[in-house]
Amino acid sequence: MTSPIKPGHAQTRGAKAAQRRLKDDDAVFEPEAERNWESDQQPLVEIICGKELELYTELEPLIRLCNSVSKRGFNSLESQEVVNFHAHHDKVLSDPLQAGLMSDIVVYYEDADEPKNTRDRIFSWLNVVAVGEAKTRDPQQERYQTAHYLQRHLQLRPELHSVLGFSADTKGYSLYYHDASVIHQCSVGWDNALMLYAFVRQLHQGLPSDPSIVNLRPENVDPSWVVKVEQKLLLITCAIPDPGLGQRRLTATARNVAMDATTNATTNATTDTATDTATDTATDTATDTVTDTVTDATTDATTDETTDAATDAATDAATDTSTVAAKLDHELWFIKDYYPDVRRRFNEGLLYVKAHKGEMLPGMMRVDHFGHPLDTSGNRLTTTDFGDGPNQTRVDRWKMRIATRDIGDSLSNVPSLLEFLKIMYDACVVQRHLYCKGILHRDISHGNIMMAPKDDGRYYKDCSKGFNQIKYLNQVLNPEESPEPACLVIDLGHSTDRDRLAVEPHTLVEITGTPRFMARSVSRGRLLGPPFKPLSTKMPKLNGPSHNLYTSCAAEYDAYNEAVDNFAQPLSEPVRTEFRHELFHDAESTFWVICWFLARSAPKNYEPENPKKSNPDLKAFVKAMETHIPGDLVDGRNSLSSRLDAWEQVLHPKLVDVAPMLHEMHKYIRPEWGYRPDLKKTYPEHAHEALMRLLLRQIARIQGDMTKNVEFAVGETRNLPMPELLPPKSRSATISTLLTTNLPVDTKKRDREDNGEDSTQPRRSKRLALNVESEPSLVSEARNYEWPPMDKWLDLPTHLASLSTSPSTT
């Protein structure tokens, strides 16, 4: 059978001949691609361009135009869902975090065969595809208000990699793109139909997303997120979503509801009832905590009072899970999804591997899974490489995930003074052990030091044979015991691998950390001035019980005294001393954590103080801590007095017995130890040594007389005098991580969210306490969800050079 004769191109010789032939035949054709509006759309465009004040009410010309474009796009695609545009200017978009916003237009998916009545439909950030804003009075305002909406949308949709939005006025329309790095706007006039068609077509095709995260019930007020990590199904029970721009992230506790976890838990439940009771208590405590983003602010979960038919059916299918929901003994997990800079030199997951290489490092969080989540094509989720971000810069970011079963509890839940001192002692031990293993933490903060996990002994069982070159407090008190650290140190996201500093020495000059707790010289990026030279600073001394405890488990007491106290060489001059982030800087951060916690601590049965009657020392301390911004500005912490009576005034009267400890700590931490390079070579841990001696002295004092222990009002803080707000210059909670952006908001009171005010400290996102524990049917839904076929769900970080795992020598 022969083929019909068709016009075609014969084989040509060489590229130039081929190009010439294509040109002669006029072979490249550029279709119109909806450059012009259709005949039924043009009248709507004319109304929008000035013949009606309201674009989305009355005749709704803008809504009708967008739906006309959507219908044409739907007809050209094979899809069961159509994109619909709907006026929403008089209703609030439901928001599980805070008071809602009122977007002029919402865009949503609808089944083409079974359209629903939008009058009864509740729209929320969890189920809209995009939002739009229309302005006829103040067109310039639309860009910032729309950008604010996109931030909220992406914040509450962790499954999405990016979101789209649009705005319109009588002169034209704008399309918006937002991911973890940028918010882009493209504006055109109403003579251009192409952009709107492209926008709608992209919505039909779907937004870039992470297939490993699903909201099982997007129509509900509260999200029901489940995350697939390899073979595990992690149903999120408590979450804090932080918005972009910058290092957008989601931190959450979750319960593994995969079938194998449930089977194991059921077996354990039948064999050990007492263990179940203890575990349930620990689980309840841990679920209330979101580890590296712990915040004092809490929100009540919004309960969804409606139960649809699908839920009823799922309940019947979930009878096997109803008795298991509270019995997943060892299957409580912590998840952190975030978008680090692709240029970041050290991968957090690999640093955890290094920290626990050889012997587990007790008191340091471990990771069970880490890597880059992939899209359905097997590619890493990376922010756009097109255009600039804030301040004409662009940071390329990619998504990372860390999952662990090591879940600590917030310092805000520490029950007593003695327990806090133990936690801080062991936190110093962990930092020293990290240094021995070649890692410098560089982000010590109140959120990154936690109480040890309460997980029915699993954690301490693993710690028993761990690395303990320096003894943990329980071993100091009883040398026969194995390591049982009171703390859990987390977050190596800004840490440094010391074994690679020979090839990347500039790493240690970077400014990293949490502003309130950053060491002063790290905050300014250079050494403190000559007045801070350690001319006469001595190592704190111990006597009595604390000295006996120390010398029973360590042999370097006199060596540290000699190295610090009897220094005869001339101090390095500032011009000859290069700034580097060193271990003693982390010790200073630990000191700021200690004094900030104790200054804010409220004893049991606390009666709130009148902040207006606070003494000057307390006011100065709070102002220095609250208003600190890294950079060249004056650091108020340099001016804080280290006098004993000053620290007595900072603390609550019931805590004045620890004022001598803060007084001596401050005297040791206040000097610039960068002028003593000799200590870095021989005793780099000297500042931690000083803190631990002073902590041990207080621990021995209280254990000798338990009436000296002070119980805290758990979850409460003192009513401190808040400083006056500085000019608006907000910084992120962690430097190198921009979590918020100062976008103006609409002055029209259409939103229930207040306009807020500028502050030197960012407002952390609120915690979402999700009511999934009471709905065992969600377990069945998670198990029966049809996940896309994937070769793997996490891609290990292969872009980095091989990470050294050999312990460092000091």
Q: What can you see in these coordinates?
A:
- It is a single chain.
- By secondary structure, this protein is an alpha+beta fold.
- Among the domains are: 42-209, tt1808, chain A (Alpha-Beta Complex), CATH 3.90.1570; 507-717, no CATH class.
- Helix content is 30%, strand content 13%.
- The radius of gyration is 30 Å and the shape is elongated.
- The termini are far apart.
- The model is unreliable at 1-7, 265-330, 726-763 and 800-810 (pLDDT under 50).
- InterPro entries: Kinase-like_dom_sf (IPR011009), Pkinase_fungal (IPR040976), Tyr_kinase_AS (IPR008266).
- This is Photosystem I P700 chlorophyll a apoprotein A2.
- Residues 1-25, 741-775 are annotated as: Disordered.
